[in-house]
Design a protein that fits this description.
- This protein is an alpha/beta fold and 331 residues long.
- It contains twelve helices and 13 strands.
- The strands form four sheets. Strands 3-2-1-4-5-6-11 form a seven-stranded parallel β-sheet, sandwiched between helices. Strands 7-10 form a two-stranded parallel sheet. A two-stranded parallel ribbon has the order 8-13.
- The longest helix has 17 residues.
- The protein is globular.
- The chain binds NADP nicotinamide-adenine-dinucleotide phosphate.
- NADP nicotinamide-adenine-dinucleotide phosphate (NAP) binds next to helix 1 and strand 7.
Length: 331
């Protein structure tokens, strides 16, 4: 098969490229060429910016692909542009997200029929819901076959390693310097962490699979774990002890609403989704990369590229920790 990836040099998409090549497929990627890690030489690269709709659509309309994987479609307008660009493609896989389900999330091990509460978030989730619905809607009218793939948190070399309370990377610097890190309510909420290599295998297996046409598929690690366990893996990768200070998340939001706002949306809640939809279509898929190994490799990449923020520039965490210790000392 000849597979086009819109993207192709990012966190998940690089892993997809690798899995497709391993399976003997021909691969073309379309991106702006801004990433440090470029694709292997056997991959055809088309350089362009998909936001320049005219250029994007005319460049790709002149080509023929069996499958297109769209890694950077965030709105209905993006999805429509992909359809305009590829009217004759055999199969489109739209990279969506589990953030289409919330917040609020309606329960544990939600399946593909869970309410799409993310449509009300006014941003990321809403845009993905609109893009997914547009694609499925045109297929229902006899258009291009589509599959909506919804990954949970997926990481690997080139991607920042988030923690439970914010999107920054300075927590890794804190660990390296043997400073304690904050956890919200002991970091005990459950999340699904997936190595990008395992996501790559799932996407590659879905390519051109007729049974996947018209389906929504969760690309998630069936084994959930807590953020505390995740933080411990990072400490282990750095060879340092993990020291944590538990803080109620409403106090964190009061301390800096913008920095810790992700707690109130996704990071502070249990987010666990069923992998049934993927297992049904690709029964032999299972995460193969041990998470500790993936964390080690990601931290090694971040350190090599000097991509970890200096925690000394951000004294707020120390102030919060000092305040918590003072409160405890009061009793
Ligand atoms: N990581 C997660 O935890 C997670 C979870 C759920 C869903 N997702 C979804 O995964 C997708 C991201 O995939 P990824 O990890 O491969 O992405 P990524 O690491 O953000 O990389 C994005 C890719 O798209 C290219 N690109 C970005 N903007 C572009 C533009 N305007 N025109 C052309 N190419 C562009 C980038 O290359 P250049 O910068 O060189 O153009 C790169 O190849 C998103 O749709 C996201 O919603 C991610």
């Amino acid at each position: 098969m000849h597979v086009l990836i819109i993207g192709g040099t990012g966190n998940i998409s690089r892993a997809i490229v690798k899995s497709l090549l391993k399976r003997g497929h021909r691969v073309t990627v379309y991106n702006r060429g801004q990433r440090i890690d470029q694709p292997p030489p056997e991959v055809e690269v088309i350089t362009g910016d998909r936001r320049d709709r005219e250029q994007f659509e005319s460049t790709l309309a002149a080509r023929q692909f069996d499958v297109a994987i769209d890694m950077i479609s965030f709105t209905a307008a993006d999805a429509q542009s992909t359809l305009n660009a590829l009217p004759n493609v055999g199969h489109i896989i739209q990279c969506s997200t589990v953030m289409t389900y919330g917040p609020p999330f309606s329960g544990l091990y939600q399946d593909t029929d869970a309410p799409l509460n993310g449509r009300h978030d006014g941003g990321y989730g809403a845009g993905k819901v609109a893009a997914d619905e547009l694609l499925l809607g045109q297929m229902a009218k006899g258009g291009v076959p589509v599959t909506i793939a919804k990954p949970s948190f997926t990481f690997g070399p080139s991607h920042p390693l988030f923690r439970q309370v914010d999107w920054g990377s300075d927590w890794l610097d804190r660990l390296k310097k043997r400073k304690p890190i904050i956890e919200a309510a002991e970091g005990l909420n459950y999340f699904q962490f997936l190595a990008s290599a395992d996501a790559g295998e799932a996407f590659a297996a879905l390519c051109g699979l007729p049974a996947a046409h018209g389906k929504v598929v969760h690309v998630v690690n069936p084994a959930a774990m807590t953020w505390h366990e995740w933080h411990a893996m990072a400490a282990n990768a750095l060879g340092v002890p993990l020291e944590t200070v538990s803080v109620p998340w409403d106090i964190l939001v009061a301390a800096d609403a913008s920095r810790f706002s992700a707690l109130t949306t996704c990071l502070g809640h249990n987010q666990v989704f069923s992998a049934r939809s993927l297992h049904e279509l690709v029964p032999d898929w299972a995460p193969k990369v041990p998470l500790q190994q993936a964390v080690n490799e990601t931290i090694e990449w971040l350190q090599r590229h000097d991509n970890i923020e200096n925690s000394d520039n951000n004294p707020l965490e120390d102030r919060i920790i000092a305040a918590m210790r003072q409160i405890k000392g009061t009793f």
